[in-house]
Amino acid sequence: MNDTDPYRMLIDGKWVDGSTGERFDSLDPYRQKPWASIPQASDSDVDHAVRSARAAFETTWRKTNGGERARLMLRLADLIEAEAPRLARLETTDNGKVIRETTRQMGFAARNYRFLAGQADKLYGQTIPLDNADLFDFTLHEPAGVAALLVAWNSPIQLLTNKLAPALAAGCTVVIKPSEHASVTTLELARLAEEAGYPPGVINVVTGDGRVGAALTAHDDLDLISFTGGQRTGRLVARAAADNLVAVALELGGKSPNIVFADADLDAAIPGALAGIFGAAGQTCIAGSRLLVERPVYEEVLQQLGERTAAIRLGDPLDPDTEMGPVANQLQYDTILDYIAAAKADGARLLTGGGPADDPDLPTGYFVQPTVFADVTGDMKVASEEVFGPVLAVMPFDGEEEAIRIANSTQYGLASGLWTRSLSRAMRVAREIRAGTVWINTYRTNAAQAPFGGYKKSGFGRERGLDSLHDYLRVKNVMADLSEDVGDPFAMRV
Ligand code: TXE
C-alpha cells in the first residue's frame, strides 16, 4: 500500500468514505498486487456530490470572475508541476504506463490548465448590429452549470484535464468519476485543487465501478456529461443523457490509420509507426493501430518494423529505460490476447510477437508481446475493431485513392497520420480523411492549443484548444429595445 492510502472521496469539500463503507482494491498491474484502497460510492453519495456541485454553482461559483478562476487554475498548474514526479509514479503504479510517458503527461496537464487559465478572463461575448437600429443586442458567454466528468483508466490525469480545464475556465462545477482501474491520481489531483484554493463543492470526486457511473449519468440535476471510454459504455451514457435531456460529449476511441506513402522518409515513418501503436502499450484512444503502406515500400517497411518491434524493451514501468510496460488489467490482457487469436484465425500473417511475453526476466505483470500482423485485409476483426493493446495491423495499398478509401473504412474517426515528402499530397489526403486529427510526418504529438475529438462513431465534442470551451459554456443573447415604441403586439417585431 502507499503513503496516502486508504483513499477517500471528495464531496462538498470533505474527504469521506462511501456511506456504505464498501471499498475495493486498486491493482498494480506490474506486481499484480493490490496497492491502494478506494471507496465505492453509493447512489446517495453520488446524489450528495451532485447536490453540492449544484449548490456551489448557484450560490457562488457561477458569479466568480474570470480573473479569480484564472488565478486558481494557474495555482493548480504550479502544484501539479511541483508534484509531477510523485503523480507520475503513482499513475504508473496504478495503470502500468511507463514512467517516461506519465512524467511527460503531468507536465502536459499543467500546460493545459495554464493555457485555458489564459481564457478564463477572456470569455467575451459580442455586440451584434441588427437591422433595426432601435435594438441593441449583445451576447454573454455563461458557464453551462454542473458537469459530470467520467474518464477511463489509460491516462487518468490527461483525460481528466481535457475536461476539467475547460470546465473550470468556463465556471462550471464538476463531479468527477475516475475509472475503478485507476482512481488514485484523480484523488491526488483533487487534493491539489483543494490546496490551490478551490471552494468546497466546486470539484467533487466519487469513486467506484460502473454502478457509480450509471448513478451519476442518470442524475436529473446535471447540465452536461462528458465521457471518455469505450463505445459500449458510451452508448449507455448517451442514453442516460437523453433520458434527462442533458448535453453530452463523448470520446470513444478509434482504429486510426497511419499511412506511409512510398516517397516517405522511412527513417522518420518507422519510429512514427512504433510510437503510434506501442506507445503506452497501445492503450491510447489515438493508437495508430492500422499501418497502411504503399506497395513499393511494403516489404522494406515490414522488415524494419519487425526488427524494431522485436527489440522493444519490456519491463518495470517505473524504470526509465523501459519502453513498454504491462497492460493495465486482467480484462484488458484477456481481450488483447483474444484479438491476437482472432487475427491468427482470420489468416493475418504474424510478423512478430503474438502472445503473452515469455521473457524470464519478467516474473510478473500483464505483459503482451508487441505484435505486428502483416497482409491484414478489411474483413478481419483486427482491421476494424479497437484492440486497445500493442497489436498492429499492417495493410498494403496502391495509390492515394485506395489509401483514403481504406483509411475511412472503419466506423471510427478519431486520429490519423500520413507520411510523405509531397506537400500537395499531404494536404489533399488530409482533407479527405474523416478524422478529428490528421498528423503529417508525425504521430501522437499533442498540444494544449490544438483541438481534439472524434468524427463518426469516435464521438462528438472537442477537448483541448479554444474549441474545448464550447461544451462548457452557454451563449445568452440579450436584446434591448431603445425606442420606447410599443408597436403592434400581434405581429413579430424585427
Ligand atoms: O471502459 P468503459 P473500460 C475502450 C477499449 C477498452 C474498452 C473497455 O477498447 O477495451 O473501451 O474499457 C464508467 N454508466 N476504451 O471497460 O467501460 C467506468 O467505471 C456510466 C477506449 O475500461 O468505457 C469508467 O469510469 N459510466 C477509451 C468509464 O465508464 C460507466 C479509453 C470508462 O469505462 C458505466 C478506455 C455506466 N453504465 C477504453 N459503466 C478511449 N476513448 O480511448 C462503466 N462506467
Blueprint (SSEs and pairs):
Elements: E1 9-11, E2 14-16, E3 23-28, E4 33-39, H1 43-59, H2 66-82, H3 84-95, H4 99-120, E5 135-143, E6 146-150, H5 156-170, E7 173-177, H6 184-196, E8 203-205, H7 210-217, E9 224-228, H8 231-243, E10 247-251, E11 257-260, H9 266-278, E12 290-294, H10 298-310, H11 330-345, E13 349-352, E14 371-374, H12 381-384, E15 391-397, H13 399-407, E16 417-419, H14 423-432, E17 439-440, E18 459-460, E19 473-481
Parallel strand pairs: 6-7, 6-9, 7-8, 9-10, 11-12, 11-16, 12-15, 14-15, 16-17
Antiparallel strand pairs: 1-2, 3-4, 5-19, 10-18, 13-14
Helix pairs in contact: 1-7, 2-4, 2-5, 2-6, 3-4, 3-6, 4-5, 9-10
The structure holds ligand TXE.
Briefly, what is this?
Belongs to the aldehyde dehydrogenase family. This protein has 2 domains: 257 residues, 3-Layer(aba) Sandwich (Aldehyde Dehydrogenase, Chain A, domain 1); 184 residues, 3-Layer(aba) Sandwich (Aldehyde Dehydrogenase, Chain A, domain 2), CATH 3.40.309.
